[in-house]
Design a protein that fits this description.
Length: 116
């Protein structure tokens, strides 16, 4: 049984005669194929200068725990405890915690005590 030669980084695989002809794309065919894929500094600048085609109507502004503490006057531990006890809704991605204005306002409204 004849062993096949091992392919290494120095071994070059050459097509055999019965493999058929090798077709190379002409420059015109390549330019037509990639015409919609504009690249380069001008294309990147144009992509960022145009507004996105479908931008959401409203984007939620997200606040960190420190920003919420500064705005409300509560301590860091109070806000973190409310998040841990699920009294205050939070968005977490990995170790990053963000809060929305709507969720903070709802939390404050739920804990508001009316005077007698």
């Amino acid at each position: 049984m004849k062993q096949q030669p091992r392919l290494t980084s120095r071994t070059v695989s050459r097509p055999t005669a019965d493999a058929g002809p090798i077709h190379h794309a002409t420059p015109e065919a390549v330019s037509r194929r990639y015409a919609s894929r504009a690249t380069g500094p001008a294309a990147v600048a144009a992509a960022f200068s145009e507004p996105p085609a479908q931008q959401p109507e409203t984007l939620r502004q997200l606040f960190t725990i420190v920003e919420v503490c500064r705005a409300t006057g509560f301590s860091d531990s109070t806000v973190r405890r409310a998040i841990r006890l699920r009294h205050l809704a939070a968005i977490t991605v990995g170790r990053s915690v963000r809060l929305t204005q709507v969720d903070v306002d709802a939390w404050l409204d739920r804990n508001h005590r009316k005077p007698r």
